[in-house]
User: Which sequence fits this backbone?
């Protein structure tokens, strides 16, 4: 009998929990997401956050909006 892996962490303190960002994935994207998560062991929300933040930081920098972000995410 194998034990279910528990998510490693919860969202950082101060994260806005009342306004989640929902997104839809194509079947192949979801399969990739699930495969990554099987290796990493995060909750879906935490893995989505970890995948989204680097892109958000890059887009903000290109748009001249980097000052709006405090980069605190782990690499």
Assistant:
């Amino acid at each position: 009998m194998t034990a279910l892996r528990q998510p490693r962490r919860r969202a950082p303190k101060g994260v806005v929990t009342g306004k989640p960002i929902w997104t839809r994935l194509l079947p192949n994207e979801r399969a990739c997401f699930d495969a990554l998560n099987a290796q990493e062991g995060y909750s879906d929300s935490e893995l989505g956050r970890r995948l989204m933040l680097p892109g958000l930081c890059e887009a903000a920098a290109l748009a001249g909006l980097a000052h709006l972000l405090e980069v605190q995410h782990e690499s």
User: Anything to note?
Assistant: Residues 27-66 form one domain.
